[in-house]
Specification:
Shape: globular
Helix content: 40-55%
Largest sheet: 6 strands, parallel
Structural class: alpha/beta
Strand content: 15-25%
Strand order of the largest sheet: 7-6-8-9-10-16
Length: 401
């Protein structure tokens, strides 16, 4: 190594070939020394290349530390995301394994309160019990059987249907699929994999008949019924029994529409009964009740609806409603299946189980009570309700007589 290089290495600045002693002065920075054309901090050594390397090394280590920390944080974040994803996947897995149920109806829901209410109870249970639910409506009997078979093919855990219109198809499909669970509302199918959910409608009809018998001013009351079939006898004969229990001298008029969807025919028959002096005419014709309501509004007589509270539609003329809680039975059927309590066979709901009832008597109404009925009548009918629930009064099932 040359003398020049040694001097430089020794920390002396140089001018030409000779060492140049440091000149010390104060600057605006700090104490420093200068050479010919450079300005160095005090104590700086030309071979600070090693120091610079160390500084670079420390800087690199600092950068690497930051990078590693970022990677660590990202890893933790990914771990958390993976855990969350695992939870979501687990939940998704639970969702995939959740129960699936179908409500297959033999006709369109439309404005039929029986199906409207049933669908509401079914969906409410699905939401509360985390069940995957689907409602399938049918246009005719052939389409209904196809829909029933499609629900089986889609492997629903429980398939629910309703009314006597579904009996024939369900008898075939349930028999062909003995390992599949079914339920039918408002009628009976006697198979080992079918729960038949019925109502003691005659108990609710008994209350309605009693209310009519206590309210009538002409001692003539009527009913427009859908069809002369066993199911409808629960309404007509239950009403008759209640009427006779409180007003034996009252005359009871009954006419049948011949179907469940004929308001025009129902209106015509209601006008006939009104012409015979009936001041209260009960509707029991499903969608046909709309015709009875129209006649009541035109002629000024009083009427009642079925299944849901129809008084809200015209409180002046629709003064009572016989209630059938299809929402309750749909809800309870789903609940029993979820709870592992679902069993085939017949179950039924009456006044005691809140399956049937009468507005103002078993349930409140948004509508004001009509003066035609009055609170005194309501109180008397409530007492009758209590006697039925306690067993003091036994209302006979017309289908068992």
């Amino acid at each position: 190594m040359s003398t020049r290089k040694k001097l430089v290495t020794a920390g002396f600045p140089e001018v030409g070939n000779r060492p140049f002693p440091m000149i010390i002065h104060k600057s605006v920075y700090a104490e420093s020394y200068v050479d010919k054309d450079r300005h160095y901090p005090l104590g700086y050594k030309k071979d600070n290349r090693k120091g610079e390397f160390l500084k670079m090394k420390r800087g690199l280590l600092f950068v690497l530390s930051i990078v590693m920390l970022a990677i660590l944080l990202a890893a933790c974040g990914n771990s958390g995301s993976k855990d969350e994803q695992s939870t979501q996947n687990a939940q998704g897995g639970d969702s995939e394994k959740s129960l699936r149920m179908a409500l297959v109806l033999p006709e369109k829901i439309g404005v039929n309160p029986f199906f409207v209410q049933m669908d509401e109870g079914f969906k409410k249970a699905g939401q509360e019990f985390k069940v995957d639910t689907k409602t399938i409506e049918s246009t005719d009997p052939a389409a209904f059987e196809q829909n029933l078979r499609a629900a089986v093919a889609e492997n629903y855990d429980l398939i629910i249907t309703a009314t006597f219109q579904a009996e024939d198809a369900l008898n075939k499909v349930a028999a062909e699929n003995p390992n599949k669970s079914f339920a039918i509302v408002d009628t009976t199918v006697d198979l080992p994999n079918v729960r038949s959910v019925g109502f003691r409608e005659y108990e609710g009809a008994y209350l309605l008949g009693a209310a009519a018998g206590l309210s009538t001013k002409t001692d003539k009351v009527g009913m427009i019924a859908a069809m002369d079939v066993p199911l409808i006898k629960k309404y007509t004969e239950g009403f008759r029994a209640g009427l006779e229990s409180v007003n034996p001298k009252a005359e009871f008029l009954v006419n049948y529409v011949g179907g469940f969807n004929d308001p025009a025919k129902a209106k015509e028959l209601a006008l006939v009964q009104f012409g015979k002096g009936a001041d209260f005419i009960a509707g029991a014709a499903a969608v046909g009740d709309l015709g009875v309501f129209e006649a009541a509004k035109e002629k000024g007589f009083y009427t009642s609806g079925q299944d849901t509270d129809r008084t809200v539609e015209d409180p002046e003329h629709i003064v009572l409603s016989q209630l059938k809680s299809t929402d309750t039975v749909a809800y309870e059927t789903v609940k029993d299946f979820v709870d592992g309590k679902f069993q085939a066979g017949a179950v039924n709901y009456g006044l005691k189980e809140d399956g049937v009832g009468l507005t103002y008597v078993t349930r409140d109404s948004e509508s004001p009570l009509s003066a035609f009925v009055g609170q005194d009548v309501v109180d008397q009918v409530k007492a009758i309700r209590d006697d039925i629930v306690s067993g003091k009064i036994v209302v006979q099932d017309p289908l068992q007589q």
